[in-house]
Amino acid sequence: MSPNLRIASRFLTARKRAMLMSLSCIVLGVGLFVVTQATTSGFELFFIRTILGTNGAIRIEDKIQDTIRSMAAAGNEGGSNFRIAMRNEGKKYIEGIEEPKLLTDALRRFANVAGVSSVLRGGVYIRSSFRTEAVQVFGINLDDQLRVSDLEHQIVQGNLDDFRSSPSGALLGREMADRLQLDVGASFVLDALGESRRYRVSALYETGVSDIDRVRVYLNMGEARSLLKRPTGASFLQVNVYDKDRAPQDAAQIEATLQYSAASWQEREKVWLEAFRALTYSSAITVSVFTLIAGLAMFNTLAMIVMEKTKEIAILRSMGYTRRDISRIFLWQAAIVLMLGTVAGWALGAVVTYAISYIPIRIRGILSADTFIVNWSIWHYVAATLISVLMVMAASLIPARRAARLEPGDVIRGTAQ
Predict the structure, then answer these.
(1) Which sequence spans correspond to the domains of the chain?
(2) By C-alpha distance, which of 188, 140, 143 is closest to 161?
(3) Do residues 186 and 104 lie in contact, with contact meaning Cβ atoms separated by under 8 Å?
(4) Which of 193, 317, 329, 379 is deepest in the core (most CB within 10 A)?
């Protein structure tokens, strides 16, 4: 142990209660920071996984057609800014996908595309023996849909093999089935375009998103085309990618290359993602108050030690200790408390996070959860440590510099400031 560290540890025992106060604030600050970040980011990542597993990373819906204004702007010899503005303003969108197979073949040539599924969507009414509700039919090719979604893992009752082999089979959300009092094997009627057809529940799924589970009915593509009287085309293409973070760049490239509107999951869920981000920042700021209090307590404690240890500091200076050595002694005190508090804060954060992950709750809305969802990330601990180091060490600099400026002669004459 170096002499500076040994002296710092001896000085720490001079004001044990004050040091324990600083230590406890650091422990609480680090621990609560880890817990709040683990829970907020946990729910955010769960929401992202749910959205990607249900709606895909990219959705391609409408064909882009240049209007007369945009074509005139494109041929203009003027500045590029005017041309770009006019091109964006003059876009016209034609609803639906006319040639889904050709577009699918083109999409599979993009390096980051992992799968493509054609979906035919239409509004219908579903009738059971108990009630009638408006729902959305989604016609799918099951094997393609499984490549772009987590539908296989969202089945909670029944099986997909029955849906695959039965033309009249259908997949219903559990929430919809509960409202209509339907179970696997039960029959129901879909009314569309003045025609009624009877179907059978092959399986029930649960995505965790109420807006999806209570309105979507999945049918085989051939049956959906017959029901909706749409022999060709598709409503949209659902695209899965290998790297979800590259979805915005891929969507922009697809739109520019294929002239179809493409929306990434970041764009579609922008409002909710910003809400989660704001919650993460606000919780971090709130719990950082404990670390700020720890910094203020450390400042007060070291300032009092400087006042009480002026004679000891003068003796050290007379023995040949430089101003830098004196400053290091006081910074070492802050570092010792910071190190102990950070390690204890890590342990507290990990234990509380683990305990919270088993607390039963019931959330139904934009996602479905029966317990708190946490995200175990080393970066939460790193961020908590950096905030503690910044606040505590910054607060310790002023007392350390004040101690370093003390001169032995001033202490003897009683004129030390």
Answers:
(1) 3-52+272-413, 89-263
(2) 143
(3) no
(4) 329
